[in-house]
Amino acid sequence: MLGRTHLLSSLLSLLLFDTASGCELFGKFHMPSLLQRGDIMIGGIFPIFNKELGSTSTFRQNPPGIKCAGFDLRAFRWTQVMAFTIEEINKDTALLPNISLGYRILNSCASSTNTLRAALTLAGGKEETERGSSCLPVISALVAESGSSQSLAVASTLGPFQVPIVSYFSTCACLSDRSKYPTFFRTIPSDYFQAKALAALVKRFGWRWIGAIQSDNDYGRHGVLAFKEEVKKFGVCVAFVGTILRRHSMDRLQAVVEMIKRSSVKVVLAFTPEGDFYPLMKEIVKQNITGIQWIASEAWITALRPSNPEIYQAFGGALGFVMPKMAIPKLKPFLAGITPYADAGAAFVREFWEIMVTHHLQRVKFKNQFGDYVFFDENGDPPASYDLINWQLIDGKVPISVCSVECPAGTRKAQKKGEPICCFDCIPCADGTVANTTGAADCTPCPQEFWSNERRDECIPKTIEFLTYYEPMGIALTAVSLLGASLSLVTMLIFIYFRHTPVIKASNSELSIFLLFSLLLCFLCPLTFIGRPTAWVCMLRHTAFGLTFALCISCVLGKTIVVVTAFKASFPGAKGAGTFGPTRQRIIVCSCTLVQILICALWLKLNPPFPAMVFRYSNKIILECNTGSEAAFYAVLGYIGFLSIICLVLAFLARKLPDNFNEAKLISFSMLIFCAVWITFIPAYVSSPGKLTVAVEIFAILSSAFGLLVSIFAPKCFIILIKPEKNTKKHVMGKMFNTGP
After folding, report:
1. What span, in angstroms and rounded, lies between the C-alpha atoms of 689 and 380?
2. Which of 314, 265, 309, 305 lies closest to 287, judged by CA?
3. Interval 566-586: pLDDT, tens
4. Distance separating alpha carbons of residues 319 and 421, to the nearest angstrom
5. By C-alpha distance, which of 93, 81, 96, 103 is closest to 35?
6. Mean pLDDT across the stretch 186-195?
7. For residue 294, which phi and psi values (nearest 5 degrees)?
8. Which pLDDT tens digit goes with each residue over 648-668?
9. Among the three residues 626, 657, 688, which one is the final residue of a domain in this structure?
10. What three-state secondary structure class fits 710?
11. CATH number, position 165
């Protein structure tokens, strides 16, 4: 309300009207000024006093005059530099021949309201002195102001009147909006460029967790906002610590200090003017808060007050950017010879400088005596250039400021719920995925033939797995296979040697030797299932399995038919006796085996088995033989099952033969074992993982072969070798009968 009252009073008091004697001012602001008259007048507004003393208004009388306190020597030096610059321009006859520049400098009191009063005073052209008043030419341009909020007030007020305004210290990026402030220029880069420089500094040191303090003005708000936008590109989080009010409240300062003490941030950015930040500095020193890496805006990094020994203990090592310094010739003697009490006159403003000034300022581009190019861009901003300031007497260790430590290789970031993006947990990559860089947001899946290592930071080739001869399982299966083959060979030799004895004659010696030969092949068949699968091996293992077992079951079927026929022929007057001789036995074995040969030939011709890699398992590749045609594979198995079922049925029907004539019982028992093995094989084969699938298939082959060998031939070998006294025709048949040659 106070600021609005002063502003309203200012506007009412600045109404001008023409009289016969000249211009007249209805109200007086009583604003002292530094004045130097010239043909062209340039206004200047500086915060020579940095504190405005409050006053109240009742709207019943004119508001009291503005009172300021806190003489700012730094701002006063700025006014003298302006005066020095104008004097140097006037002395140079090549720049403005026959034209002199003048200036009128007012105090803003570091207040937006008072800055606006000063701007309207300069635009009004009325000079108040102790000897009275006089009319002055209005200014052609204005140099103002140090604070961004003050510059916003002036630019929005004088901009519509095409008065060019050049600021020497306002950095708010909002002032670069040409649509709102078409006549605003400045000789210091905007906070957009400073924010980019500060963000690059943060990135350089690897800080990811930054605290931020701002002033309650346009400079602080827009500066922190621009900084947040820039560091967000680098994945940096900014935690808001607090806002410093222009009129300092001890409660607010202590709240900001407590926030700094509780926060986990170790790097804090302060985007505030010196006058706002200095009280907070003193409170931080009072609370003995150390260990914070401070990042400073250009408004306080070069200030004198914060650099005293008392403040340095907490703010030593602060980093910030400032405009490059340069030694200006003749300036030092000028500053040494001036006094703040000097006064000067003014002069009329030429029409040219009133109308075409903004246009020419926009086109200014020259190279100064230091080799730097001076120009304004389309937004009225100069080229950005900074010097880095570090409040560090000796080399210090760069502090680490992160909310969460960077995730190492092999892990990924997992955002913590309800916390800033810079706060995260590190989750190990899942199996089959890797993160080979630090700070990875996601884990990358490995290619199909690769798998992640234990550290999850590299993809390594998967282990290729197949059943080998040199692993324990392969050695055991090979040994059992060779044992069965050896037993079959020995049994076959026994049957050949004792082929004329009654026991062997009664079991049909020719079919028995054929059966033993087929069992020998069945025991050798598993050897093709062990080792690395190739195209030829895959075709051999499946067809050899199908053919050997078809031959084996065909022999058993022939033996079963011979037993049934022989039993019927043993009865007097039985029909069909002697009709199933050796020739027919060979025909049935060959014909039954031929069917399997045709099935296998079609299989190999149309869609043969082939080696394939199976990727269904996570960390390994199973190298196995794909059957090619599933229909052909199950046709081979189905045909073997069909023959075995016929054998089982015939043997079961002949199970009630006399006790001494027990061939049918032995065949029945062997077929039961054979069928049981292959019935249990199917679910075990389907559910077995990896190379165990091959092991299950080998186990089924060996089990069924051993079942046939032991069930059919073990009792006969026992009689031949252990009980030779029972190897007689009488004991075998109970009468003179022979079932075969």
Report:
1. 74
2. 314
3. 666 555 444 544 556 778 888
4. 25
5. 103
6. 85
7. -95, 135
8. 888 777 666 554 446 777 787
9. 657
10. helix
11. 3.40.50.2300
